Amino acid sequence: MIPVKHIDPEDLPLYAMQLLSPEETAEITLHLQHSAEARRVLAEIQGDLAALAHTAEMHSPPALARQRLMKHVAREKKPVPIDRFAPVATYAPRESTLLDDEPVKKSAAARVLPWVGWAVAAGLAVEASSLYQQRQSLRTTVTSQSTQLAKLSTDAELSKNVLEAIQDPSAVRFSLTATGAKAPPEGRAAYLADKGSLVFIASNLEPLEPYKTYELWLVPADNHDPIPAGIFKPDIHGSATVVLPTLPKGVQAKAFAVSIEQDGGTSAPTKGAVVLQGLAT
C-alpha cells in the first residue's frame, strides 16, 4: 500500500491558487483524499479567495512576480523529517490531520490574506461615499439652475406677450378721453381678443382720494356686462398702466372704459363714475 506523505500547511494557499509544481500538486491531492482536516482548511482558504475575487478586480500575475513568489515559497519550505513517516506493512486508510506532528504555523501570506478583502471593501466604501456626496452636490446645482431657467423662461414669455399686444397688426387699439371736460386725461389700450392679452397706458389722470381707485373695464361687442380688467392708481405725474390682466380669451371688445370706484374695485361700474371711455380706432 502507498503511504500518505505529510504536507506543509503553508502549501495549501499555493495549492488553492494553483501555484505549485505538478509533483507537489499531486502529493497534496493525494493527502486531501485521506485528511478531513486538510480538506476543511483548504475549503476556508478557497472561501477567502472567492470573497476577495468578488470585492476586487482580478488580474493575472506577471510572470516575473510569479517567479519571485515561487522563490520566496521555496525559501520558506522546511524539509520533512524522515522519522515522521512510520513504515507500515499494509496500507489502511485513516483520517489524518494537519496537526498530527506539530502545530500549524501561518505564513505571512496566510496572515495577510484574510485582511485584504476587508481593506478593499473599506476602500470601496470610502469611494462610494465620495461619489454620493458629488452626486448630491450636482443634484443641488442642477435644481438651482433649473429654477433660474424656469424664471427666465417665464420672464421671456411675459415680455413676448407684452410686445405682441403692442405691436401685433391684428391688435385693436383704443383711445380713451375725458367725458364732459377739456380731456387732459388720456388712455390707450392694445388688445388681442383671441389670447385675452391687454396692455393699457393712461396719462394725465387726476389724483384720487386714499379710499378711491381707478378701474378698467372691457365692454364686450355682444353687449354683455362689462368685464373688470384691473384696478390702478396713478403716480404723482398722473400716469398708470395695466399690463396683461386676467381676461377670458376670445371676447371681442366693443370699447374700453375707466371708472372711479371704492378702493379694491367692484364687479360692475358704478353709475355716473366713468371718467374715460373709448371705441376701437
From TrEMBL:
This is Anti-sigma-K factor RskA. One of its GO terms (molecular function) is sigma factor antagonist activity. It comes from the Bacteria. InterPro entries: Anti-sigma-K/W_factor, RskA_C. Residues 119-272 form the Anti-sigma K factor RskA C-terminal domain. One of its GO terms (cellular component) is plasma membrane. GO terms for biological process: regulation of translation. The lineage of its organism: Bacteria, Pseudomonadati, Acidobacteriota, Terriglobia, Terriglobales.
